[in-house]
Design a protein that fits this description.
The protein is of the alpha/beta class. The chain has 4 domains: 95 residues, Alpha-helical ferredoxin (Fumarate Reductase Iron-sulfur Protein, Chain B, domain 2, Orthogonal Bundle), CATH 1.10.1060; 47 residues, no CATH class; 125 residues, Glutathione S-transferase Yfyf (Class Pi), Chain A, domain 2 (Up-down Bundle), CATH 1.20.1050; 117 residues, Rossmann fold (3-Layer(aba) Sandwich). The protein is built from 23 helices and 9 strands. The protein has a 5-stranded mixed beta sheet. A 4-stranded parallel beta sheet has the order 7-6-8-9, sandwiched between helices. Helix 22 links the parallel strand 8 and strand 9. Helix 1 packs across helix 6 and helix 17 packs across helix 19.
Length: 422
């Protein structure tokens, strides 16, 4: 006879986790949309299977280490949530469970090293830039590199764009229609800083004044999704203190960051900062949604020729934030654009934060499938709304020998305002 879950033992997440577990009726609708189930065909690597495993662990009927390989293989893409007829809030299970699991079982030294390096570099732009540049030396000395770090070398870009800086305040052009604060991200500042530059240009052109708070930091998504709850709380509290209250919105231009900011109330649940986190999360808006709601005051001129653009749904826009139509509306507003839809839009590309470092084989299989779907679409440009997806798809398209421009939605829109596309 299984024991019931005791929510008080797992405060502050216990009650929410108990409700989520009880909401699952094991119907199996989630299986058809789960990327890891599609790859592995193992019940334990489906949302339904993982919920059973988490339930057994929380009831004390299964050891933490027995469930952990399957929990680690979850992308956290949340494709299961919109597919679930019972409305199971899977996000209130997976990351809290990982946070509770930290320290409850043994990880290999290789796992610890890889996770430690990711945590100490990716959320800090200066360190991350140095790490990516150092990857070239690592490739040259590959026989000496620990096997656990090979996925880092494989995914590190061969070249890093020049660093960019942005003013604390970018004034609106013409009459000011809104005033916002922008989260500039961490990995994005290194891998594609032009996304922030394009965001400032498009917002200013459309009458929006943009502040960049100087004390902001990483959103905390990497820490939260890998179970480092103390670090996630610290990042969240620092951003709560950094962003002003007197703005119309807090703008994000990376799906993963936006999703994490919306989860601040969960990350800070049971603390004195929970109410403030809820107010903060209500003001977080993806740039595509903000511009669509505000309306483009200045219509883009386009590039002067027809353009076939494939749009890739980032999981943490489409599934986590239910943002699907707004990026497409912005792209369709560009004269000459023919928007192409990719098959299986619900399937993750395999990036998922640091997932492609921790689970490189599954991530590579998903990335290659998505890249082949892009090529089969006949697109001239690929657009998406998340730096992780852009980086993953750029790498896999390059491996297939494709020279295809891969751009953030806001970069495509900015380019359509320019006399010549950048």
């Amino acid at each position: 006879m299984l024991h019931s879950i005791q929510p008080e033992r797992y405060a502050p997440f216990g009650e929410a986790m108990t409700r989520a577990v009880q909401a699952c009726v094991h119907c199996g609708f989630c299986l058809s949309v789960c990327p890891t189930y599609a790859e592995l065909r193992e019940e334990a690597d489906s949302p339904r299977g993982r919920i059973v495993l988490m339930k057994l662990v929380l009831e004390g009927a299964l050891a933490w280490e027995a469930a952990q390989p399957h929990i680690d293989r979850c992308l956290g893409c949340l494709a299961c949530e919109p597919a679930c007829p019972s409305g199971v809030p899977y996000r209130e299970l997976i990351s809290p469970f990982r946070a509770l699991a930290a320290g409850k079982f043994h990880r290999s030294g290789a796992d610890h090293l890889r996770r430690w390096l990711a945590a100490k570099t990716i959320p800090h732009p200066a360190r991350f830039r140095l790490a990516v540049r150092s990857a070239g030396a690592g490739r040259a000395l590959r026989p000496l590199v620990p096997r656990a770090l090979e996925s880092m070398l494989d995914l590190a870009p061969r070249c890093v764009p020049p660093a960019q800086t942005w003013p604390a305040v970018t004034p609106a052009r013409g009459e000011r229609r809104a005033r916002v604060a922008l989260l500039t991200g961490c990995a994005q500042q290194v891998l594609d800083p032009d996304i922030n530059t394009a965001t400032l240009e498009v917002l200013a052109r459309n009458g929006v004044e943009v502040l960049i708070p100087g004390r902001q930091c990483c959103c905390g998504g990497l820490a939260w999704h890998t179970g480092d709850w103390p670090a996630a709380r610290d990042f969240a509290r620092r951003n709560l203190a950094a962003f002003p209250d007197d703005v119309d919105a807090i703008i994000t231009n990376a799906a993963g960051c936006g999703s994490t900011l919306h989860e601040y109330p969960l990350i800070l649940r049971g603390t004195a900062d929970e109410a403030r986190a809820e107010a903060f999360a209500r003001r977080v808006v993806d740039v595509s949604v903000f511009l669509t709601r505000l309306g483009l005051r200045e219509k883009p001129a386009g590039t002067g020729r027809p353009q076939r653009i494939a749009y890739h749904d980032a999981c943490h826009l489409a599934q986590a934030q239910d943002i699907r139509s707004e990026p497409r509306d912005l792209l369709r507003a560009i004269p000459g654009v023919k928007l192409l839809e990719l098959p299986d839009t619900h399937l993750c590309c395999g990036s998922a934060g640091s997932y492609n470092l921790d689970q490189p084989a599954i991530a590579a299989a998903l990335g290659e499938k998505k890249a082949r779907a892009v090529l089969a679409s006949g697109a001239e440009v690929l657009a998406s709304g998340n730096i992780g997806c852009l980086t993953q798809l750029r790498a896999h398209l390059a491996r297939l020998g494709a020279e295809l421009p891969i751009r953030h939605t806001i970069q495509v829109l900015r380019d359509a305002y320019q006399p010549e596309p950048r």
